[in-house]
């Protein structure tokens, strides 16, 4: 789960981490009220969307010459004008894709006199089974560009969860950032605080870009992103309450209500599979046969009839779907349960696209009998290759 910048900063502040004063705003009036609480004379007005590159982004409705989604304002009047520009309009960045995201929230913060910018992030390194802290002196720009052009400017420090954060990790961070004296001590303390926040909140990723040295000699978190392990959210109801469903695909939101692993893709063949590996293989073989999957959908090993019905309806709610491939290997999951769900969903909605089903495993014959006796135009397949060929051919024929 992702959260907005202002929410992430609220969480970091609870761990004693320094952030500029700022106020979230859902309206122009709230943005102006927030600015009036700040000392000025410099303010920063930031669009709040779940995507990076906001400063370089463009608002679709305002034309190519409009300013981006992060703006410096030199007066309250400027704050008001920027808020009117941003709220309700669509911001397109390098991470949103061409469709962009509508800006519904702003964050108005105090201006900061910056002496130097750094990069610092933490994530779970699955290769080493450790937590990786990634630091660079090249803050304020895309870390991917730095990694591509000047990888020697990036330092990775791994931390074993069994021992936790140690003083030498903090010294390594300060050294990588080329800091000395009091700034080095601040970097050591900050990195320890970030590790505590990361592990306490069950984060997947915590990125600060930039971390800045102010002209009066302090380290401040100027911008941050946080994402969390969704499987651990039950331990953090305060974090879960920060979820902004308007930033998520509606079908993915609906799938999460049924504990379905669903990700929308750009193709036209909907997939319903049990098991992540089998789902990936199914998408691969669809592409091998000349088409593209419209989604990744794993119904899991213990799905009920109701869960399968919900999964099928979610696939059909995507207007891009021109055909559906169901590929089930019944281990824990029973093929007759899948078949009952498919029949129930197909009868509940107006099924007007080709449907190919491949079943194998527990109660497979019962499942096939249910499909065969349903009276629905369901095409049966013998194996995965046969299923992929048939659904691709059905979709092309229907077109």
From TrEMBL:
<dbReference type="InterPro" id="IPR005811">
    <property type="entry name" value="SUCC_ACL_C"/>
</dbReference>
<dbReference type="GO" id="GO:0004775">
    <property type="term" value="F:succinate-CoA ligase (ADP-forming) activity"/>
</dbReference>
<comment type="pathway">
    <text>One-carbon metabolism; formaldehyde assimilation via serine pathway.</text>
</comment>
<dbReference type="GO" id="GO:0006099">
    <property type="term" value="P:tricarboxylic acid cycle"/>
</dbReference>
<dbReference type="GO" id="GO:0006104">
    <property type="term" value="P:succinyl-CoA metabolic process"/>
</dbReference>
<feature type="domain" description="ATP-grasp">
    <location>
        <begin position="9"/>
        <end position="255"/>
    </location>
</feature>
<feature type="binding site">
    <location>
        <begin position="53"/>
        <end position="55"/>
    </location>
    <ligand>
        <name>ATP</name>
    </ligand>
</feature>
<feature type="binding site">
    <location>
        <position position="117"/>
    </location>
    <ligand>
        <name>ATP</name>
    </ligand>
</feature>
<dbReference type="GO" id="GO:0042709">
    <property type="term" value="C:succinate-CoA ligase complex"/>
</dbReference>
<dbReference type="InterPro" id="IPR013815">
    <property type="entry name" value="ATP_grasp_subdomain_1"/>
</dbReference>
<comment type="function">
    <text>Succinyl-CoA synthetase functions in the citric acid cycle (TCA), coupling the hydrolysis of succinyl-CoA to the synthesis of either ATP or GTP and thus represents the only step of substrate-level phosphorylation in the TCA. The beta subunit provides nucleotide specificity of the enzyme and binds the substrate succinate, while the binding sites for coenzyme A and phosphate are found in the alpha subunit.</text>
</comment>
<keyword id="KW-0479">Metal-binding</keyword>
<feature type="binding site">
    <location>
        <position position="46"/>
    </location>
    <ligand>
        <name>ATP</name>
    </ligand>
</feature>
<dbReference type="GO" id="GO:0000287">
    <property type="term" value="F:magnesium ion binding"/>
</dbReference>
<dbReference type="Pfam" id="PF08442">
    <property type="entry name" value="ATP-grasp_2"/>
</dbReference>
<dbReference type="InterPro" id="IPR016102">
    <property type="entry name" value="Succinyl-CoA_synth-like"/>
</dbReference>
<feature type="binding site">
    <location>
        <position position="209"/>
    </location>
    <ligand>
        <name>Mg(2+)</name>
    </ligand>
</feature>
<comment type="subunit">
    <text>Heterotetramer of two alpha and two beta subunits.</text>
</comment>
<dbReference type="Pfam" id="PF00549">
    <property type="entry name" value="Ligase_CoA"/>
</dbReference>
<keyword id="KW-0547">Nucleotide-binding</keyword>
<dbReference type="GO" id="GO:0050074">
    <property type="term" value="F:malate-CoA ligase activity"/>
</dbReference>
<protein>
    <recommendedName>
        <fullName>Succinate--CoA ligase [ADP-forming] subunit beta</fullName>
        <ecNumber>6.2.1.5</ecNumber>
    </recommendedName>
</protein>
<dbReference type="InterPro" id="IPR013650">
    <property type="entry name" value="ATP-grasp_succ-CoA_synth-type"/>
</dbReference>
<dbReference type="GO" id="GO:0005829">
    <property type="term" value="C:cytosol"/>
</dbReference>
<keyword id="KW-0460">Magnesium</keyword>
<comment type="similarity">
    <text>Belongs to the succinate/malate CoA ligase beta subunit family.</text>
</comment>
<comment type="pathway">
    <text>Carbohydrate metabolism; tricarboxylic acid cycle; succinate from succinyl-CoA (ligase route): step 1/1.</text>
</comment>
<dbReference type="GO" id="GO:0005524">
    <property type="term" value="F:ATP binding"/>
</dbReference>
<feature type="binding site">
    <location>
        <position position="274"/>
    </location>
    <ligand>
        <name>substrate</name>
    </ligand>
</feature>
<keyword id="KW-0816">Tricarboxylic acid cycle</keyword>
<keyword id="KW-0067">ATP-binding</keyword>
<feature type="binding site">
    <location>
        <position position="223"/>
    </location>
    <ligand>
        <name>Mg(2+)</name>
    </ligand>
</feature>
<feature type="binding site">
    <location>
        <position position="112"/>
    </location>
    <ligand>
        <name>ATP</name>
    </ligand>
</feature>
<dbReference type="InterPro" id="IPR005809">
    <property type="entry name" value="Succ_CoA_ligase-like_bsu"/>
</dbReference>
<dbReference type="InterPro" id="IPR011761">
    <property type="entry name" value="ATP-grasp"/>
</dbReference>
<keyword id="KW-0436">Ligase</keyword>
<feature type="binding site">
    <location>
        <begin position="331"/>
        <end position="333"/>
    </location>
    <ligand>
        <name>substrate</name>
    </ligand>
</feature>
